[in-house]
Amino acid sequence: MTADFLNFQNSVLHANYGLIAESEENYPRAIEEFQRSRYYSQIGADAISICQANAHIGQAYFALAEYDSASYYLAQAEVLARQMDANEILRDVLPSQAKSYASLREWDKAYDYANQAISLRDEYLSEEVQRQVAEM
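The chain above was modelled as a monomer; its predicted structure follows.
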């Protein structure tokens, strides 16, 4: 097996451990596992996995009411997702970022992120409806 494949396997393994910890509401453990996943993703230069790990870390910090940390990791995920045009990740990150800024009472930023999330959701739904109509 190649080193890249082993790094990918380790990244996926720790991401899954993070998801399990998250489902058990063990957010400190989830953060630890997602950080390990991100570490292995960085070694393997897997940008999508890095982005997903940052999003999960941000959401776990939000669950712990550590809003500054949540915003930091969500912003990292947002930047990567925009660079890769990964709208499926942005659909999760933007509403989380809106909630995080609202919790920090930064209303203008919260409003901006909420509007971006709504626009992206509407765009996705419009594309999905067009796809379904085309399949008829």
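The longest helix spans residues 107-135.
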